[in-house]
Every structure is written in structure tokens, then in C-alpha cells.
Amino acid sequence: MPGVADYLIARMRAAGVRTLFGLPGGGGNLDLIQAAGRAGLPFVLTATETGSAIAAIAQAEITGAPGACITTLGPGAASVVNGVACAKLERAPLLVITDSQVSDALFEHQRIDHHALLAPVVKWSGSLAPPNGHKSIDTAFAQLAAGTPGPVHLDCPADFESSVFKGWRVPEHPKIDEPLNPPAFLPDYCSAPKPLLIVGLASRRSDDDVSGIRSACKRLKIPALVTYKAKGVIPDDHPWFGGVFTHGLIEQKLIEQSSLLIGVGFDPVEILPRPWKYPQPVLSFSSWELPTDHVPFAHQHVNDIGETMTWVARWMVMSQWNVEDVRLSVDTARSAVRFAGADDPETLTAQTVVAAAAARFAGQARVTVDAGAHMLPAMMLWPASEPNEMLISNGLSTMGFALPAAIGAGLLDRSRPVVALIGDGGLLICMGELATLVRERLKVIVLVLNDSSLSLIEIKQQARKLPPAGVALGDLNWSRIAEGFGIRAWAVRTPVELEHALDAAAAIDGPSLIDATIDRTNYPDIMKAIRG
Questions:
Q1: Which of 24, 191, 212, 446 has its CA 20 to 30 A from that of 69?
Q2: Model pLDDT, residue 13
Q3: Which of 80, 149, 39 is nearest to 404 (CA)?
Q4: Which runs of consecutive H residues, i.e. helices, occur in 339-390?
Q5: What's the distance, Cα to Cα, between the start and end of the chain in Å?
């Protein structure tokens, strides 16, 4: 008779989970892997527990359904914490399942309190221990579907299958068509002469939300800034695309011209931790309630974003923005980043690498971006036309994100290439996932911006007039390392070599790596242009 493992996997399938990632232990998750196999849910072995969580997060962001990963007990649970924290601050639904000791065991070996360990970074934590494992599963999926998206945790003892229950079935959750609930405060602001949208991560979850935002911008002639996570909700070539919002310098002039700021799916977790100094009223249209201690929202409307934007388009008056002024602002910002400190056209910089890769792959490939100094030009210069074409860790901003995220994305669509933009420091953290690329034969192009330093930290040392210390990585031959994993690779130092390598990588039906040695000396100029 099908038991708890089969029920849990059936609930995953019904919720839209596409892959189960992780590193198995010797306990209950072996039963889960077998149940997944019976149900046709792929299990993918990763090199690290954090990598498994991040790969699952990438799938959750792209599909809108939960991601899922498993770990062994003790060290496995401890190792996955960074990935679970990433899911919390990226607002990604993630089910993380840890092995645990038998429910009544008295042994101390490898025993740590998984619930206490994960409590600060999960929405809820429960156990599959008999006899109520199925009830814990129901609660876990209810938590995944409720409120602010984030991770939930289930502890899985080796004896969890002993609580067999009869006659189970996966509950149906029909879509409930809620009536339009117009924002009661909107009439007070509908005559604002120059409203400006700040479009954030919650806006990319459905086609209706995206089309509603785009239609409102077009109909009312309202420009929209997008956060890193919302790149593509408003395409870069849209006439009312206003640029990227980071809470830095680069978008400041456009904001200063506005009379009203409207956050659409915008969550303060996405922006730089600086005091909010803009005097305009700020409204929020989102799918969940937001704190007001950082961004002082005057009013919040928690409802379906697409439906809310129909009211915005219907009630607000045509703005007084000039589209040419908006386009000029965007072009000026891009130029400020593109040419910041770039003096020698024959030397590779982060900007030239991003620009060349974007010219070759933007629009056809998904791109994942790691944390580090290179993310600044990447997010400004790589154009996106659809939501989730660019994936980045922005809430946690964790290094080692781009490669496992590329694995998760690549598994969803093997016909579409993925470009992983990653620094040498980030790749050191998740290097073992190169083996996962090979094992799964994914068409992922790992583009390493190799500058032999933790450059973003070095910039901050320079800003404080401190000598560089603890940031030198040494010279690493990433092309040789990749070849050791069985990956085709190229080492490049000039724009011409880079162009040839990009063309060669595009022709390979499988993983590849380009080791691009870059000049990092212009990073302070890029930082100043974007953040001030």
C-alpha cells in the first residue's frame, strides 16, 4: 500500500515541483528517492546541499511552483542552511527535507536539532515522524501556498514509513476567482502628474501580472524602474522602461522628477540597505503585506497584481512624462556604466565581457548572475525581454549562486542555453557543481570573470582607504580545471579571443566554460556610477 513517501511525492507533483535535488543520506530520504522514481519525478544529485537548494530555487522562480531538495541528517542539514536562507530572502517557495534519527533514538551521534537550526530561515518546520506524517505534509504545503513565499522544512526519520494510512488522495485546490478589489486609496492619487512605477520580484509570477503592468505603462505613459529580480517584466527596449532600481545613484535623477512612487510587487528586501530619503508618497501594490520600517509605504493594497493594475489603468490620468526624456535617462545610465574606467579597447573588462556575451546570447539564452563586482555591469547591460530571463540572488546576495541556478534552469528546458556569469571567487565556492553539469549534460556556458580577487570587497577596502588584505585568490587556470571535469573550455584575454570562444561554446551541445581574464581596476568607477 502506498505510504507517506508516495503521498509526499504526489503532493510535490500536484504542486508543480519539477525536480527533486540533493545529496541522499542513509535514512528516510532513500525512500523518498524511490517514491520519486515510481512517480516519474526526477532526482538530481548535486555536489553540495546549498547547490541543491539554489537549483531548486531557480526552478521555483521560473515556474512559480515550489522547488524541493533533500539532505542527510546532521552535516547535511547544517550545510543546506545558506540555500534555505537564500529562499527566504529571495521570496522563493522551497520544500527542504532533512533526514533525521529514528523518532525515539537516544543516540547523540550526528544529532543536532534541525528544527532549531532552520527556525530563523523557514516559514514553518515539521516532522514526518509517525503517526502523523501525512498531517505534517498537509501543513507544509499549506504553508508553501500562504502569505509571503519562502521555505518550509520537513524532518524525515528513518521510520517515517511506519505510519501507513489508508485511502489517501491528493486534495484538489481549484482556482478561486476572487472579485476585483480596487485600492480604496487610489482615487486620492489618480491625478499625480508624474507617477513612477518600481517593479519588483512579486510582479513576475504570472503572465496576467506582467501584461497588466505593461498595459498600464503603455496606456498611461508611465515609466517603470525594475529591480534586479524583475528584469524583463518591462523589457529593456520598451519605450517606458526607466532603467534598473537599486536604491543607488544611477536612478536618482528619474526618481527626483517623479511626483508619486508606486511599488508593484516591490519588496524592500531587494534594495541596498540605505535610508530612504525620497519625499514623494510611496504606494504598494503587492501579493503580500510588506514592512514599512525601510520604505515608508503610505498605503498598501494586497491583492492580485494583474487585477490591481487594471484599476490603475482605468482610474489614473495620463501622465505628463516625456518618453524621450525617459529614453535619454536610460541611455545615459547605460553609457555611464558601459564606459566607466574603460580606456583600452584591447583589454577585457567586466563591461566588455558582458556586452559581448549579451550580443551573442541575449534573447535566446537565460542568464544567471553571481554575487560580486561583475553583477553591477551585468544587471545594467544585459537586456531582458521576459521575466526570469535573468536570475540573481538579490535578497541574500550569496556567492556561489549562478552555477547551481543554471543547473536548475537548464533542467527545465534542455533546448535553451543558459549562461552563468560568475566570478572566480564565486566559482571556487560551488566548483563541484561542474560535475553536475557534466553528469546531466546541460547546455550551460560558464563564463568566469577571472580577476584573481574578491573584487567587491577590495573596492570597499579602497573606499575606506585600507590596503587590500584577505582578498587575493591567486592565479587559477579555470580552463584546465574545467577540462579535468570533462568540460570543453577556453582561456581568453582579448575581445577577439572572447568572440571566438563565445561562438565555439554556442555550437557545443553540452557544458562549456570560458575563462576570461579581466582588468578589475575600473570596478570602483562602475560602483560610483551605479551606487554613488
A1: 446
A2: 97
A3: 80
A4: 350-361, 375-381
A5: 63
Cite the beta strand spans of 288-347 per DSSP E.
Answer: 297-302
- pLDDT at position 180 is 66
Among residues 193, 315, 199, which one has the least CA distance to residue 263? 199
Determine which helix (DSSP H) or strand (DSSP E) holds 209, and give its type and residue range: helix 207-220
CATH architecture of 339-531: 3-Layer(aba) Sandwich (3.40)
3 state DSSP class of 320: coil
**Looking at residue 105, what is its pLDDT?**
63
**Cell 551573442 -> residue:** 360
Backbone angles phi, psi at 157, to 5 degrees: -70, 160
Main-chain phi, psi angles of 128, to 5 degrees? -90, 15
Task: Provide the pLDDT for residue 164.
Answer: 66
Sequence letter at residue 525 = D
Running DSSP on this structure, what letter comes out for residue 453? B
For residue 201, the cross-strand partners are none
Q: What pLDDT was estimated at residue 101?
A: 72
Give alpha helix (H) positions in 16-80.
29-39, 49-63, 75-79
Two domains, one topology: 4-162 and 339-531: yes
Distance, in Å, from the CA atom of 52 to the CA atom of 366, rounded to the nearest integer, reads 19
pLDDT recorded at residue 1: 56
Please list the ranges in the chain whose pLDDT falls under 50: none
Place of cell 560551488: 430
DSSP code string of 153-200:
EEEEETTGGGS--SS--PPP-PPP-PPP---TTGGGTTT-SSEEEEE-
pTM score: 0.95
Amino acid at 240: W
Q: Residue 503 burial by CB count (10 A; 0-12/13-18/19+): exposed, middle or buried?
A: exposed
* Number of neighbouring beta carbons within 10 Å of residue 307: 17
Q: What is the pLDDT of residue 102?
A: 61
Domain spans of the chain?
Answer: 4-162, 186-329, 339-531
Report d(CA 232, CA 343) in Å as an integer: 30
The pLDDT, as a whole number, for residue 165 is 67
CA dist 228 and 325 (Å) reads: 22
3-state secondary structure of 46: coil
Instruction: Please report, for residues 83, 94, 266, 267, 402, the alpha-carbon distance to residue 121 in angstroms, rounded to integers and kept in the order given.
Output: 10, 11, 21, 17, 21
CATH number (3.30.465.10, 3.40.50.970, 3.40.50.1110, 3.90.245.10) of 4-162 reads 3.40.50.970
Q: For the chain, give the percent of residues with pLDDT over 90.
A: 82
User: Number of helices and strands (H, E) in the chain?
Assistant: 20, 18
Cross-strand bridge partners of residue 73: none
> What was the pLDDT predicted at 214?
97
- pLDDT for the residue 141: 96
Q: How far is CA 516 from CA 217, 347, 416, in A?
A: 39, 11, 23
Q: Which three cell numbers stand for residue 489?
A: 573550455
